[in-house]
């Protein structure tokens, strides 16, 4: 991730890392690789340019000392340039034959230098390297060769820090090699070899819980026990991180009820009392006429109940659709405002916004006003 707002080098033991050009895939005449060690923003020839854009193209840098590389900075030409790197990758390693990928990103096509934070920890510990490979993948200009104008790296080269990190990293590599062997032995069902290697090295392939799940599924074929294991892991919160990273996906299912329920309609309004888990449905249009019925749906019991077939007869709103409704769960009151009138029925006398309140506990409607506009409302 590039930034000009954060100072990655704000550390007492970080310093600029010296390096030399170790090797490269190709080079264009007059654009030698050593140019990237000097930041000459106004000099168009001060850059390494590949002789081709056919992969793989790369330039490998060798650090003067074994170091923990934390940032890499790319300088640019003073103007936009078609050869700037739109996409590239960075690899590091203790040698130039076995390297790991640290970064997959790109540069903006402008004249502002960009600094990238490099991954420099494995297992929560810093790891050192000696070689850094920059692999261009795409330039800003289609079919153009790749150019790098300037490279600077910052990190830690202090032997008192790097040498212990190197020793730990070597041990880490040994453990990982043993774990890969253990994984292979288990996959191939070489149980004796697996047990001997694990006993002699005292290296665990994985978390004991994963080994238990493998035994239930692969060795025992006990799917019910495996399901129970996963359910317990879910309850214990072991899957919370994984679940939090998943995208929500709606799952619809039809809710049926043996009791009478509302007929088909559109333009109706619903609101919910979260305390009682009760949904209230008022009115709507059934395709022939507006409706004035009031229903409740009890979520926990999945039951519909008809409260009123015609709320107007109880002093409530007349038949309507496309009105608005909301519920106050503390006072247990429902408020409904307005309705839709077809153009052929609109007139100054009936084109008014009436406002009603329904008290849930007393099952009583109250008309607050015939026209909210007359009270200074909508």
Automatic annotation (TrEMBL):
Protein origin, superkingdom: Eukaryota
One Pfam assignment: Kelch_KLHDC2_KLHL20_DRC7
Coiled coil: none
SUPFAM superfamilies: Galactose oxidase, central domain, Galactose-binding domain-like
GO cellular component: cytoplasm
InterPro entries reported in the protein's UniProt record: CTLH_complex_component (IPR052456), Gal_Oxase/kelch_b-propeller (IPR011043), Galactose-bd-like_sf (IPR008979), Kelch-typ_b-propeller (IPR015915), LisH (IPR006594), Muskelin_N (IPR010565)
Keyword list, A-Z: Kelch repeat, Repeat
Domain Muskelin N-terminal: 15-208
Name assigned to this protein: Muskelin N-terminal domain-containing protein
């Amino acid at each position: 991730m590039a930034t000009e707002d954060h100072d990655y080098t704000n550390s007492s033991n970080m310093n600029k890392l010296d390096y030399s050009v170790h090797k490269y895939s190709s080079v264009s005449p007059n654009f030698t690789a050593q140019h990237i060690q000097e930041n000459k923003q106004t000099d168009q020839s001060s850059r390494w340019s590949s002789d081709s854009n056919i992969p793989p193209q790369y330039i490998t840098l060798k650090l003067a000392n074994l170091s923990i590389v934390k940032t890499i900075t790319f300088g640019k030409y003073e103007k936009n340039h078609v050869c700037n790197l739109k996409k590239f990758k960075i690899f590091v390693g203790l040698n130039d034959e076995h390297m790991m990928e640290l970064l997959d990103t790109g540069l903006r096509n402008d004249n502002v230098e960009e600094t990238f934070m490099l991954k420099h920890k494995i297992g929560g510990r810093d790891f050192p390297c000696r070689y850094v490979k920059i692999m261009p993948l795409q330039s800003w200009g289609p079919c153009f060769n790749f150019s790098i104008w300037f490279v600077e790296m910052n990190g830690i080269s202090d032997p008192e820090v790097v040498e212990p990190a190197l020793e730990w990293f070597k041990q880490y590599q040994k453990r990982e090699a043993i774990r890969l062997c253990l994984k292979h032995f288990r996959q191939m069902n070489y149980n004796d070899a697996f047990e001997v290697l694990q006993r002699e090295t005292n290296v665990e392939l994985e978390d004991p819980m994963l080994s238990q799940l493998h035994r239930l599924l692969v060795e025992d074929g006990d799917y019910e026990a495996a399901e129970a294991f996963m359910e317990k892991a879910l309850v214990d919160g072991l899957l919370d991180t994984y679940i939090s990273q998943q995208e929500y996906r709606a799952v619809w299912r039809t809710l049926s009820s043996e009791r009478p329920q509302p007929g088909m309609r559109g333009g109706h309004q619903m609101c919910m009392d979260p305390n009682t888990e009760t949904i209230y449905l008022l009115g709507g249009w059934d395709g022939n006429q507006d409706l004035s019925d009031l229903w409740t749906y009890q979520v926990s019991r999945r039951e519909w109940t008809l409260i009123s077939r015609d709320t107007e007869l109880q002093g409530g709103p007349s038949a309507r659709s496309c009105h608005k409704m909301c519920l106050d769960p503390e006072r247990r009151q429902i408020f409904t405002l307005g309705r839709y009138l077809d153009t052929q029925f609109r007139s100054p006398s009936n084109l008014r916004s009436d406002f009603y309140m329904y008290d849930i506990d007393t099952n009583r409607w109250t008309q607050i006003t015939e026209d909210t506009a007359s009270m200074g409302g909508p």
